Amino acid sequence: MAAPPGRARQMNAGAARARGDALLFLHADTTLPEGALAAVRRALAGGAQAGIFRLRFDRETPLLHFYAWATRLRWRRFCYGDRGLFVRHGAFEAVGGYPDWPIFEDLELADRLHERFGPDRFRYLPLAVTTAARRFERAGPLRQQFQNLRLWTRYLLGTDPEAVAHRYCYD
C-alpha cells in the first residue's frame, strides 16, 4: 500500500494497517536500545496509554550531549518524533492520530495524548534511542539548534505549522 506524501499521512496510513494493540513510531535513522520493547510492554501493562524514550546521538559534541540530556525532562513539548513514540492503538485513534501537518505533528500528538489521558498515563522511559546527528553536522550544531529553537518557539506561540515548515530542511 502506498501512502500519500507527508510524514503524518504516512504514519497514519501505517497505523491504519497495523493490527497490534500498540504502535511504535520510529524514524528511519533512529535505533532502539536493548530492552526497549520489553520496557514498552511493561509501561503499557502498568497502565500507560503512550510514552516516549530519551534521546542520544550517534555523534558526541557538547551541544548534542546537552540536547540529549534535556530529553530527561518530562515535558510534553520535548516529545519529538525522533525519540520513538509508542502508543496504544486505541489511544492513537481516540485522539485522531497525527494531525495532517508538515511539521510539529509529533508535538501535537503528544499534547493531545496528555490532554486526553493525563500526564500520569504518558510514560517517559529511562532508555535512550540513538538517532543520527547528520543534520547537526551538516548545518553545524549551534546553527541547527538555533534554527530548531526559532521554529519551536513560533509553534509554541501559535504560528500555523504550514507557515514555518518551509524553513525546516528534511533529509
Structure report:
- By secondary structure, this protein is of the alpha+beta class.
- It has one domain: Alpha-Beta Complex (Spore Coat Polysaccharide Biosynthesis Protein SpsA, Chain A), CATH 3.90.550.
- It is built from eight helices and five strands; from the N terminus they run H-E-E-H-E-H-E-H-H-E-H-H-H.
- The protein has helices spanning 7-17, 36-45, 62-70, 89-94, 105-117, 134-139, 141-156, 161-164; strands at residues 22-25, 30-31, 50-57, 85-88, 122-131.
- The chain has a five-stranded mixed sheet, with helices on both faces.
- The longest helix is centred in the C-terminal third of the chain and has 16 residues, at 141-156.
- The protein starts with 6 loop residues before the first helix and ends in a 7-residue tail after the last helix.
In short:
The model has no long low-confidence stretch (mean pLDDT 90).
Q: Which range best describes the helical content: under 10%, 10-25%, 25-40%, 40-55%, 55-70% or over 70%?
A: 40-55%
Distance between the termini: 23 Å
Average of the residue pLDDT scores: 90
Q: Compute the gyration radius: what is it?
A: 16 Å
What is the class in the CATH system?
Alpha Beta
The CATH architecture would be Alpha-Beta Complex
**Cross-sheet strand order for the largest sheet:** 1-4-3-5-2
Please, how many helices?
8
Main sheet?
A: 5 strands, mixed
Number-wise, the strands total: 5
Estimated structural class? alpha+beta
- Would you list the SSEs in sequence order as H and E? HEEHEHEHHEHHH
Overall body shape: globular
Beta-strand content bin: 15-25%
Query: Regions with pLDDT < 50 over 5+ consecutive residues?
Result: none
Total tally of structural domains: 1
The CATH H-level superfamily is Spore Coat Polysaccharide Biosynthesis Protein SpsA, Chain A
What is the CATH T-level topology?
A: Spore Coat Polysaccharide Biosynthesis Protein SpsA, Chain A
